[in-house]
From TrEMBL:
This is Lipoprotein. Residues 1-26 form the signal peptide. The lineage of its organism: Bacteria, Bacillati, Actinomycetota, Actinomycetes, Kitasatosporales. Keywords: Signal. It comes from the Bacteria.
Length: 159
């Protein structure tokens, strides 16, 4: 009985050391997670903000929206019903090694059914920031920017 209690205490005392070795890796090298990612620009927006502008437009209008994001010469579009996703991200992937540069960005939201009603159309220049999702000194090194489409202010803002 005493021997089991002594063994359990010894294991409990050794546990933090074993965990530290396991987290640091054998040989004491830097431990890196394996989170991947891509360089690029993302814009967050809330379809509900545009709901009043879309509903009641026409008898054939389903309330769907098309978000289009262009960064440099690369564009991506996404169609969302105004109630599908409360805060979707629209993003454009860029070359992984693009670096910390300033890129032109244009973000538009239009009514899906006729495509003629432009609800939001803003341009800005944004600086890509270095980002290492697995920690400093770990790969990959990405270059990203995230913006939010602010319908109330009619602008793209950081974040």
């Amino acid at each position: 009985m005493k021997r089991n209690a002594k063994r359990q205490r010894l294991l409990l005392l050794a546990l933090p050391g074993l965990l530290a070795i396991g987290c640091a890796g054998i040989g004491g090298g830097q431990a890196c997670t394996e989170i991947s990612g891509e360089s690029g620009v993302a814009v967050g927006w809330e379809p509900a903000d545009f709901a009043d502008s879309v509903t009641g437009g026409s008898d054939t209008d389903s309330g769907s929206l098309v978000a289009r994001l262009c960064v440099q010469e690369v564009c991506e579009s996404r169609t969302v019903a105004n109630s599908d996703d409360p805060a979707p991200l629209t993003d454009v992937v860029l070359d992984e090694d693009i670096g910390e540069v300033t890129v032109p960005v244009r973000f538009t939201v239009t009514s899906r059914d006729d495509g003629k009603r432009v609800l939001f159309d803003e341009r800005t220049d944004v600086e890509l920031r270095r980002f290492q999702p697995n920690g400093e000194g770990c790969t990959p090194t990405l270059f990203r920017a995230t913006l939010t489409a602010d319908l109330e202010r009619g602008q793209l803002r950081p974040g």
